[in-house]
């Protein structure tokens, strides 16, 4: 069952926003407009990929998280951390020191989210081998990609693997382990995921294909990194509470990296990262202009989760650190120094029974109306309006493209005369006086935007106004 709404972790700070269009231009689903000199978000189109967050030059876009103090409302306080967090720290910082820092900050248990991959890889192999499945099967690991397909490529929703990602499998395993082995009351268990991206926050708050998540709350990785790093700087290795032992396997360590998942699927697989690369490839899949693939591992961020917007370390460095960690694990295992003891295997039967998710429903951003006949008429009007628009997608109208403006006009969210080229044509034909045209532009970009200002970003007195 799909949820009836999309939770969004990204929020625009209106008092900080300068209406510069950087965010509008990079959004892969055209979810942003500029009105009254401020960026506005269309909730039904946003997929929380974070491209707007990266692009904003004034940090007017933030990623909301749960208050850290919320963890203390639970007796069993579990930090569910992705392996990417370990990759944020230099090689000379032992994993057990990072774990110990998390315990010192108030958590009672620490687990890496990729524990769930050990179970998932077995299920995924059988799932993709099923000849009755719609091919290519598309990974459900990246929630931004799942939402991208829902809103922009709704014809491909049946291709999405109806399987929980590793972090959800790990959360189920941890919860069950605490209930069985520590006799914990379910209401006393709080599982908090340390997220490298906004999309996972949205997925936990309003999961697709499920009514609720097994994860209690979400804390941003950059926040946790700073707390952990501060403890690490002042404490010696002797103060660690965790013994020297790798908690996950080499395959699990690299699952969140590009090509970490694809090798475990049956048949011909392909791994693609970066939202623009994913979008272009999905267009080809939708148009059936690519060869046969059994499985697609698609990740919205460049270098997959190493490129998450809430990470602190350079994505190339963190990827290298995780691959080195995995290689070191393989070497120690070969030498007989490691005996694998994955906790999820103890609950394998239960986890396999609960690893599936419900139907993923389309949420097409192309739908102009619920009534098919009305929608067809609106589409025809969009095509007619495009005859008059210049087709250069300059964004001066406050919409990301000429087609987006035409759709906004049809949906009564804009006016055709918002286009600066249409305005100039109307003025030339004496259908619009210059003063009225100027007021129309001000309506989009805000009053005062056309006044001389030597203090704005890039001007000669930038930054001096507040000094």
Strand content: 5-15%
The helix content is 25-40%
Task: List the uncertain runs.
Answer: none
Over the alpha carbons, how many angstroms does the gyration radius reach? 25 Å
Question: What sort of overall outline do the alpha carbons produce when their principal axes are compared?
Answer: globular
What oligomeric arrangement do these chains adopt? single chain
Report mean pLDDT, rounded to a whole number. 91
How would you write the strand order of the largest sheet?
6-5-8-9
Q: What's the total helix number? A: 17
* Secondary-structure class: alpha/beta
H/E series, N to C? EHEEHEEHHEHEHHEHEHHEHEHHHHHH
Secondary structure tally: strands: 11
Q: What does the main sheet amount to?
A: 4 strands, parallel
Task: Determine the N-to-C terminus distance.
Answer: 54 Å
Walkthrough of the structure:
The protein is of the alpha/beta class. The chain is 37% helix and 10% strand. Strand 8, helix 8 (198-205) and strand 9 (217-220) form a beta-alpha-beta unit. The radius of gyration is 25 Å and the shape is globular.
Put the structure in a nutshell.
The chain has 467 residues and is an alpha/beta fold. The chain has helices spanning 22-26, 51-55, 83-87, 95-104, 117-129, 143-152, 166-181, 198-205, 221-234, 250-253, 275-286, 315-334, 348-353, 372-386, 402-410, 420-428, 434-445; strands at residues 10-12, 32-35, 38-41, 61-63, 76-81, 109-112, 137-138, 189-195, 217-220, 269-273, 295-299. It contains 17 helices and eleven strands.
């Amino acid at each position: 069952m799909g949820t009836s709404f999309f939770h969004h972790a990204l929020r625009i700070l209106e008092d900080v926003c300068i209406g510069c269009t950087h965010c509008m231009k990079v959004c892969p689903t055209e979810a942003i407009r500029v009105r009254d000199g401020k960026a506005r978000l269309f909730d039904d189109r946003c997929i929380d990929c974070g491209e707007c967050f990266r692009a904003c030059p004034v940090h007017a876009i933030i990623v909301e998280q749960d208050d850290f103090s919320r963890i203390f409302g639970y007796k069993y306080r579990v930090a569910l951390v992705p392996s990417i967090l370990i990759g944020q720290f230099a090689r000379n910082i032992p994993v057990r020191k990072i774990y110990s820092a998390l315990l010192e900050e108030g958590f009672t248990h620490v687990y890496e989210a990729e524990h769930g991959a050990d179970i998932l890889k077995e299920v995924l192999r059988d799932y993709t081998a099923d000849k009755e499945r719609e091919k290519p099967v598309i990974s459900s690991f990246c929630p931004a990609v799942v939402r991208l397909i829902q809103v922009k490529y709704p014809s491909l929703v049946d291709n999405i693997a109806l399987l929980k990602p590793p972090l959800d499998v790990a959360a189920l395993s941890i919860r069950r382990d605490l209930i069985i082995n520590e006799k914990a009351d379910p209401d006393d268990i709080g599982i908090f995921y340390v997220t490298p991206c906004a999309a996972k926050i949205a997925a936990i708050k309003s999961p697709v294909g499920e009514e609720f998540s097994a994860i209690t709350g979400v804390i941003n990785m950059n926040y946790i990194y700073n707390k952990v790093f501060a403890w690490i700087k002042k404490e010696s290795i002797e103060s660690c509470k965790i013994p020297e032992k790798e908690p996950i396997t080499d395959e699990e360590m690299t699952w969140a990296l590009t090509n970490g998942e694809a090798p475990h699927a049956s048949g011909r697989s392909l791994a693609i990262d970066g939202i623009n690369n994913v979008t272009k490839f999905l267009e080809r899949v939708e148009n059936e202009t690519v060869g046969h693939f059994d499985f697609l591992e698609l990740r919205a961020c460049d270098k997959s989760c190493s490129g998450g917007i809430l990470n602190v370390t350079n994505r190339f460095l963190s990827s290298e650190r995780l691959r080195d960690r995995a290689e070191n694990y393989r070497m120690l295992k070969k030498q007989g120094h490691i005996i694998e003891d994955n906790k999820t295997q103890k609950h394998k039967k239960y986890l396999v029974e609960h690893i599936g998710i419900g139907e993923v429903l389309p949420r097409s951003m192309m739908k102009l109306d619920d009534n098919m006949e009305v929608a067809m008429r609106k589409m025809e009007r969009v095509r007619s309006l495009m005859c008059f628009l210049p087709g250069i997608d300059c964004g001066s109208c406050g919409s990301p493209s000429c087609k987006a403006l035409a759709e906004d006009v049809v949906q009564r969210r804009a006016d055709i005369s918002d286009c600066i080229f249409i305005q100039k044509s109307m003025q030339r034909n004496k259908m619009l006086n210059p003063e009225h045209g100027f007021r129309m532009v001000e309506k989009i970009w805000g009053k005062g935007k056309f006044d001389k200002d030597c203090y704005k970003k890039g001007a000669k007195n930038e930054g001096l106004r507040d000094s």
